[in-house]
Specification:
The complex is a heterodimer of chains A (about 300) and B (about 375).
Chain A: E1 4-15, E2 18-29, E3 33-37, H1 44-51, E4 59-64, E5 67-69, H2 73-76, E6 80-83, H3 95-105, H4 110-123, H5 139-150, E7 157-161, H6 169-184, E8 188-193, H7 196-201, E9 204-209, E10 212-217, H8 219-224, E11 228-234, H9 238-245, E12 251-257, E13 260-266, H10 272-278, E14 287-291, H11 295-302
Parallel strand pairs in A: 3-8, 3-9, 6-7, 7-8
Antiparallel strand pairs in A: 1-2, 1-4, 4-5, 9-10, 11-13, 11-14, 12-13
Helix pairs in contact in A: 3-4
Chain B: H1 4-20, H2 22-42, E1 50-56, H3 61-72, E2 76-82, H4 85-93, E3 99-103, H5 107-112, H6 126-129, E4 135-138, H7 143-150, H8 184-215, H9 217-221, H10 228-258, H11 266-290, H12 294-310, H13 323-331, H14 333-347, H15 355-375
Classes of the chains: A alpha/beta (about 300), B alpha/beta (about 375).
Chain lengths: ~300, ~375
């Protein structure tokens, strides 16, 4: 059996009357990249804060790297790295000074610290920027600096809270390459995101909505198990067609993708193409094709109601 | 276990940030410099040259000599002439002058019959000797101005008539220790140390932590192994040095420019100052655990600063305040520091002889440290 990095059982956390997390069960295996996928305000950040011991759960038990939380939160600090959603290093310190500061905070000796800082600077391509103020850097560079900072003490487990929300696609690709490198070296990574393409890169992921875990598994599993069929319709008046299709009980959702309308139909219908072409608003000239479900389709089928 | 490395990390970071923040760095030097010059020269309780007017009913040689004698005291300066009581009152109401001297028609008769002049042949009657020579009409709303003019009440007049001064023996002899020349700066400059330290120390520390919270740095810091007291200590230590630099500037310049004597030993001075810096920094820390942004921390600093200026004994004597205000004053670290620093600088006492103030500052620091450590939590609950 593979070792588990995170085990959470029936975790709940409220802020006043707001139920931020409800009944969350979670198991994360060591050495994988685990994703939290969900819309804004679904409790991703709260979940990460619970798992890092920054927040106490109202109910349930959490064990991270074998340490019970929140009791052993202090012990856990040396073993985890946490990259916050907002850039939280010092804008008025240079790249190098920021890393040196963190090195000292994590108690590295002077030699270790020197070695680690120069290692990180070259790994994350920040050599040229070493003496530049962090506040004057681009979003992508800052993101790399934040990742370097979070990994300075070689943590076993890395939490990344929406790490690429302010980064262009090019930098995002690069950033993920670096995450896979870290993962390859044995680091377990938990990353939250609201990008589908990012979620698809994770080994496993959990879909959160309104504080509740709606589904979890590997992206392939989730896409295979989706309780719906996806039909793409090419027609003349897609906006109108969408409005006409949505009231049907069997149609879960319809979303326009350029010249096509992507319609999700419940699995209870044996032959979705036949079902759709029997509908009065579908013209004989319209093209219907059955396509492979995407992660976005998974997301749409298991969320949609009860958003806060 | 306390980690010196982590404290040093915070300390170094604070210094780098301070060095880059030119404005704040400048303020550290400029605040004491400017305020010392400003207040050292500006605040003066020995009031001189109060603008006054005269309403001379007598228009005689004697009345003119009387006016000149009064001007010669330098307490007042005659700037206006009035020809009616109503014009004089109007001038006082509009603040054109602070007082008007009204000289009656029979000023010469009043003068010769006045007991201080003693030209009494036949002897003056009781009624005659009880008649003053002239009258001051004073804007009494400002008690300091009123007191200055009141001091003229029994000025000697014998030389008006080139008579030998009718010597009076004072009831009490008053020996003015420590500030015989009665220069206000001697009292103000050491007090200014307290006011400026209150302002900068509380403001810097409270803003220093709130700033980290505002910029999101704290969210990162709390996920690291740093402990709250390590963070607090690392943040405080740079400001201790800043405080000492400011004290050096104020007292050094006060000595050079305003000739304020430094009678106490440097060691005693350092002891008193460190006690107060510690208390102020800790107060700043407590504020930082309550305030959620820098504006709030500024407001709270001002909330502490004003009573520290007005109630601490810096400007007005503690003894003159009502009991309730005295209790409030006792709660402020600035009050105790005013006593200590004036004691050390002007009167060469050892701070241990003023035990109560020393213990109080220590207690305040300790209580503040406990409160801020308890309030500053490393989790987000």
């Amino acid at each position: 059996m593979t070792e588990l990095a995170i085990v959470a059982e029936k975790v709940a956390r409220n802020f006043g009357s707001l139920k931020a997390i409800q009944n969350l069960d979670l198991t994360v295996e060591k050495g994988c990249i685990y994703g939290f996928l969900g819309p804004n305000g679904c409790g991703k950040t709260t979940a990460i804060r619970l798992l890092t011991g920054l927040l106490r759960p109202n109910e349930g038990t959490i064990k991270v790297l074998g340490l019970p939380l929140p009791k052993a939160a202090d012990q856990l600090r040396m073993k985890i790295g946490y990259m916050t959603q907002k850039f939280s290093l010092y804008d008025d310190l240079t790249v190098k000074e920021n890393l040196q500061f963190l090195g000292k905070i994590y108690g590295l000796s002077t030699n270790q610290q020197k070695q680690r800082v120069s290692e990180l600077l070259s790994t994350y391509g920040l050599d040229q920027k070493a003496s530049q103020l962090a506040g004057c850097m681009s979003g992508g560079q800052r993101q790399r600096l934040a990742l370097a900072g979070a990994t300075i003490h070689k943590p076993e487990l890395l939490f990344l809270d929406e790490p690429t929300s302010a980064v262009d696609p090019e930098n995002r690709r690069e950033f993920w390459e670096q995450l896979f490198d870290l993962c390859d070296q044995g680091t377990t990574i938990l990353v939250s995101t609201h990008y589908m393409d990012e979620a698809e890169r994770c080994h496993k992921l959990a879909i959160l909505e309104a504080g509740i875990k709606r589904a979890d598994g590997s992206p392939e599993q989730l896409m295979a198990q989706i309780p719906a069929e996806v039909v793409e319709v090419t027609s003349a008046n897609l906006r109108q067609l969408k409005q006409q299709l949505l009231p049907l009980a069997e149609v879960i959702s319809a979303a326009q993708l350029g010249a096509r309308l992507r319609v999700l139909i419940k699995k209870t219908i044996a032959n979705p193409i036949d079902y759709l072409s029997q509908q009065p608003m579908i013209l004989p000239s319209d093209e219907l094709t059955l396509v492979r479900p995407s992660l976005e389709d998974v997301f749409v089928t298991c969320t949609g109601d009860g958003r806060q | 276990m306390i980690s010196l490395l982590r404290i040093q990390a915070i300390f170094t970071k604070e210094l780098i940030q301070l060095k880059r923040d030119r404005m704040t760095f400048g303020m550290v030097i400029m605040i004491p410099l400017i305020q010392l010059m400003l207040f050292g020269f500006a605040i003066n309780t020995n009031i001189r040259n109060i603008p006054v007017g005269v309403f001379d009913n007598s228009q005689s040689g004697l009345s003119r000599v009387l006016i000149q004698t009064v001007s010669a005291t330098q307490v007042v300066e005659f700037t206006e002439q009035y020809h009616s009581i109503s014009a004089a009152k109007k001038a006082i109401a509009t603040s054109k002058v602070r007082a008007v001297l009204i000289i009656p028609k029979d000023v010469s008769q009043r003068l010769v019959r006045h007991s201080s002049v003693g030209l009494a042949s036949p002897a003056s009657t009781d009624q005659e000797t009880s008649r003053p020579i002239a009258q001051w009409l004073v804007d009494g709303s400002d008690t300091m101005i009123a007191a200055a003019i009141k001091s003229l009440r029994s000025m000697p007049l014998a030389e008006l008539l080139s008579k030998p001064t009718n010597r009076t023996t004072p009831t009490f002899e008053v020996a003015l220790l420590y500030n015989p020349e009665q220069r206000t700066a001697v009292n103000i400059v050491p007090g200014l140390v307290g006011v400026i330290l209150t302002m900068t120390m509380i403001m810097f520390t409270s803003a220093a932590i709130v700033r980290e919270r505002e910029r999101g740095n704290l969210e990162m810091l709390i996920t690291t192994p740093i402990r709250s007291y390590e963070l607090m200590l690392g943040k405080i230590i740079p400001y201790i040095f800043i405080g000492l630099v400011q004290v050096f500037i104020i007292l050094g310049l006060g000595h050079l420019v305003f000739y304020v004597p430094i009678n106490g030993s440097i060691l005693q001075l350092a002891g008193a100052t460190l006690l107060f810096i510690a208390a102020s920094l800790v107060l700043g820390l407590v504020i930082s655990t309550i305030a959620t942004n820098q504006l709030q921390s500024m407001q709270m600093t001002v909330f502490i600063l004003l009573p520290s200026i007005l109630l601490s004994g810096f400007m007005f004597p503690y003894e003159g305040m009502p009991q309730a205000a005295q209790y409030i004053a006792e709660a402020l670290p600035a009050t105790h520091f005013m006593r200590l620093i004036r004691g050390v600088v002007l009167r060469d006492v050892e701070i241990i002889e003023m035990r109560f103030d020393v213990y109080w500052l220590l207690l305040f620091t300790l209580a503040g440290l406990i409160i801020s450590s308890l309030r500053f939590k490393k989790n987000l609950d």
